[in-house]
Design a protein that fits this description.
The protein is α/β, with parallel strands linked by helices. It has one domain: Alkaline Phosphatase, subunit A (3-Layer(aba) Sandwich). Helices cover 31% and strands 18% of the residues. The chain has 14 helices and 17 strands. Strands 1, 2, 3, 4, 6, 8, 11, 12 and 13 form a 9-stranded mixed sheet that branches. Helix 7 packs parallel to helix 10.
Length: 492
C-alpha cells in the first residue's frame, strides 16, 4: 500500500484492526497448539516448562552475516538464525541503552517524561510495574542477571534471584593496555575509542560474563527449576576493545566506508546528535568529522567487537546443548538499538534514522522452524511474546503485541506500523515509509523527515518538502499521534 487515506482513516484502521484481531487469534491458537509440545520429556508425555535464555548485546546493529552482511564473522549468532526466527524489521522504541532496556523490560512505550536517556531507571520511571523477569520469578522461575541487562544493575532488583557483574580490574571501560588505563583514570578524560589487546577472551568483561553464564547453566540444570537466564554483553559498545585475534579477522584495507556521509536535504542540523558519546574519547575531535583513517579504525573496532561477542555467545550455546537444555530452552537475542558507522556523517545511536532504531532480533523456540520475517515488530512486543510462549498470564499494562503467530507463519500481519522516538523526535514506520516529526512540548512541529523505504532504504532523500507528499504526511502524523501511547503526555 503506497498511500494512506486521510478522510476515512479511522474507519479503515478500526475495520482492518478487527479483521487482524480475528486472524491473530486463529494464528495464536494454531501456534500454541504446535508449540505446546515442543519440550516433551524423554521419559514422560507431559510437556516441561520452557526455560528462557535472554541474550542482550549492547549497541548491536543488524550488520551480521545472518542479515546478509557477508563481511561480518558472526557464526554463532548466525546459528540462532539458522534454527529460529530472524526479524528483518525489528525496531527499538528509543535508541539509547537505559531507556530502551527499561521500555523492553516493562513492555511500556517511552513518553515525553518516561524512559528518556541512558541513565533511565525502570523502577523510577514506571513504579509498581511488573518487569518481564519479575513476572517469571513470580511464577516459579529462577531468574539471574549477568552483565548488562538494565542500565543500572540494581534497577528492579526484586525481579532477580541473583544479579552479577564482573569485577572491575582496571577501569569501568575495561581497558587492558597501560596507556589507556592511565588516560582513563584522569579526571574528565577517557582512553582511546578502541583497543587491540593480545590476550585471552576472559581478560575483558564479556569473556567473564560468558564463563559465569555457563557455570549458571550447570547449576540451573541441577536445581530443577525452570529458569530465566539473562546474559548482557557489553560489546560492541564503546570503547571498541577486543582481543587481537578478532581484529585479525578483518583486513584494515578492506574496511568500506559508507557513501552517505552527510545529512539529507531539509533535515534541521540543530535537531541531529553531535555524537557526544564518541567525542569523549581520546583522539576524537570535539567538533567536525573524524578523519577517514579514524573512521576506518572505528569501523574495524566495531566489527572486531561483534565477532568477539559472537564467540562468547557460541560458548554459551554450546554449553546449553551439552547440558541437554537446548531442547527445552527458548533463546532470544536482541541488540538494544542500532548504531551509526558514519552513515549521514553520524556515529553512535542518538537519532531517528533507521540506522539508530532498527535492531537485531532473533527468536529460537524448540520445535519451530527456521524462518525470516519481514513484518514490522518493535521491542515492546518482546514481553508479551515470551509470556505467551511460556503460558503465563499477560499483565494488563502491556502496550505491545505477541509475536507468537509469526513462528508458524512469518508473514502474519501482526501490525501495520511501529513507533519509535528520540528526544522531541517521534517516528512512525510503515511497510513503505518512515515519517518523523520534531515538535515542541505543545506539539508545534519544527522539523520533518519522510523516506520511501521501498526505493530509499538508506534514507538519503528526504521527501518532506515536496508538496505531493503533504497528504501522506498528514495521514501518517494522525496515525502516529493516535498510537504513541496513552500516557504520552502524562507529566508524572
Amino acid at each position: 500500500m503506497r498511500s494512506l487515506p486521510v478522510g476515512d482513516e479511522r474507519f479503515f484502521y478500526s475495520f482492518t484492526a478487527y479483521l487482524k484481531f480475528l486472524l491473530m487469534k486463529i494464528y495464536t491458537l494454531l501456534s500454541l497448539a504446535i508449540l505446546s509440545g515442543f519440550a516433551l520429556n524423554s521419559c514422560s508425555s507431559e510437556p516441561e516448562t520452557p526455560n528462557i535464555l535472554f541474550i542482550a548485546v549492547d549497541d548491536l546493529r543488524p550488520e551480521l552475516n545472518c542479515y546478509g552482511q557477508s563481511h561480518i564473522h558472526s557464526p554463532n549468532i548466525d546459528a540462532i538464525a539458522d534454527e529460529g526466527l530472524l526479524f528483518q524489521n525489528a525496531y527499538c522504541n528509543i535508541p539509547v541503552c537505559g531507556a530502551s532496556r527499561a521500555s523492553l523490560m516493562t513492555g511500556l512505550r517511552p513518553t515525553q517524561n518516561r524512559f528518556l536517556n541512558y541513565s533511565t531507571w525502570a523502577e523510577k520511571d514506571a513504579p509498581g510495574i511488573k518487569t518481564l523477569p519479575g513476572l517469571f520469578r513470580d511464577h516459579g522461575y529462577a531468574t539471574i542477571s549477568n552483565g548488562k541487562i538494565f542500565h543500572h544493575s540494581t534497577d528492579s532488583k526484586e525481579s532477580w534471584d541473583e544479579i552479577w557483574f564482573p569485577e572491575i580490574e582496571s577501569t569501568s571501560r575495561d581497558y587492558r593496555l597501560p596507556a589507556n588505563i592511565a588516560l582513563d583514570t584522569l579526571p574528565e578524560k577517557r582512553g582511546a575509542a578502541w583497543e587491540r589487546f593480545d590476550g585471552a577472551d576472559d581478560k575483558y568483561f564479556d569473556g567473564r560474563i560468558a564463563r559465569k553464564s555457563i557455570n549458571d547453566l550447570q547449576k540451573l540444570k541441577a536445581g530443577g527449576r525452570p529458569f530465566f537466564l539473562a546474559v548482557g554483553f557489553l560489546k560492541p559498545h564503546l570503547p571498541f576493545n577486543a582481543p587481537a585475534k578478532y581484529w585479525d579477522m578483518y583486513e584494515a584495507d578492506e574496511i568500506v566506508l559508507p557513501g552517505n556521509d552527510s545529512l539529507p536535504g531539509g533535515v534541521p542540523s540543530n535537531l541531529i546528535s553531535n555524537w557526544g558519546e564518541l567525542r569523549n574519547y581520546d583522539g576524537i575531535p570535539a567538533e567536525g568529522p573524524v578523519s577517514e583513517a579514524t573512521a576506518r579504525k572505528l569501523i574495524h573496532g566495531y566489527y572486531s567487537c561483534v565477532s568477539y561477542t559472537d564467540a562468547q555467545i557460541g560458548l554459551i550455546l554450546e554449553s546449553l546443548k551439552e547440558l541437554d537444555l537446548e531442547r527445552n530452552t527458548i533463546v532470544i537475542l536482541w541488540g538494544d538499538h542500532g548504531w551509526n558507522l558514519r552513515e549521514h556523517g553520524l556515529w553512535c545511536k542518538h537519532s531517528n534514522f533507521d540506522t539508530s532504531t532498527r535492531s537485531a532480533l532473533l527468536l529460537k523456540v524448540p520445535g519451530s522452524k527456521s524462518a525470516r520475517s519481514d513484518m514490522l515488530v518493535e521491542y515492546v512486543d518482546i514481553y508479551p511474546t515470551l509470556v505467551e510462549l511460556c503460558g503465563l498470564p499477560l499483565p494488563a499494562h502491556l502496550e505491545g503485541k505477541s509475536l507468537v503467530p509469526l513462528l508458524t507463519d512469518p508473514d502474519t500481519p501482526v501490525k501495520d506500523f511501529i513507533i519509535t522516538k528520540w528526544q522531541k523526535g517521534l517516528t512512525i514506520k510503515t511497510e513503505d515509509y518512515a515519517y518523523t516529526e520534531w515538535a515542541t512540548k505543545e506539539d508545534s512541529v519544527v522539523g520533518r523527515m519522510l523516506y520511501d523505504h521501498q526505493s530509499d532504504r538508506e534514507e538519503n532523500f528526504n521527501l518532506a518538502a515536496l508538496p505531493e507528499y503533504e497528504g501522506l504526511m498528514d495521514s501518517l502524523s494522525l496515525l502516529m499521534h493516535a498510537n504513541k501511547g496513552k500516557d504520552y503526555y502524562n507529566p508524572d
